[in-house]
# Entry
Amino acid sequence: MICFPNAKINLGLNIVEKRLDGFHNIETIFYPINWCDALEAIENKNFQQGDDKINLSISGLLVEGNTQDNLITKAYKLLDAKYNLPPVKAHLQKSIPMGAGLGGGSSDAAFFIKLLNEKFALHISIEEQINFANQLGSDCAFFIENKPVYASGKGDMFAETKIDLSKYCIVVAYPAVHSNTALAYKGVMPVKPQKNIQSIITSDIKNWKEDLVNDFEATIFLLHPELLKIKNSFYEKGALYASMSGSGSAVYGIFKNHIDVEEFNFPADYLIWKSK
# Structure
């Protein structure tokens, strides 16, 4: 069985306050986009006692770390502890870059929960799938239902939001820069915004440029000025709104009409995705 875990972008991101547990409360809009990995699982007929019950292989873009520490492996082990799953071979074709603020790793884990649920007819409710996903990471649970939400708390408390960008052209550029989330948080002074993201999102998209802010940009753009160049290039080509996603380093632009990415003259090593 195969699935296609997709990425997300953040529409605005405010760091509201630092929590007593050391984490931060945020507010943002998670919006799914169709930049996808491919993830497959089959039963491991060659399994022998003493082997790991999940054998994960990865191709495509580089994924750092040991496969035993990968969120896909952790997702399997969570479900296996409760449902005693058959041994599986899993393969990930990685297309969503890591360290990009696109949630690719979280998406892989969440989609694997859904894949295992369907493949082995586990009949896990949506609520329980979300509970499993929450144990893996703050934004993993978003990808269970995979629809636009207003996220608050650590990015793990969701409220429905009505936003549809399907009529716009979205371009995402990733310049092969790995953004350090912990460092990004250190450079931000938490403050409650004057305008709530929910209210901004419901306004005309032409107003977003002035009102919709990603608090990480000030710090990350100083560390990686090429990201600011990407954002400015989107506005120069007529973007209605442009922003870094999450803590970076992917930057996206939202355009009213189709745009040819060749117009941007991005370096050859940039990864580019376009919605249509």
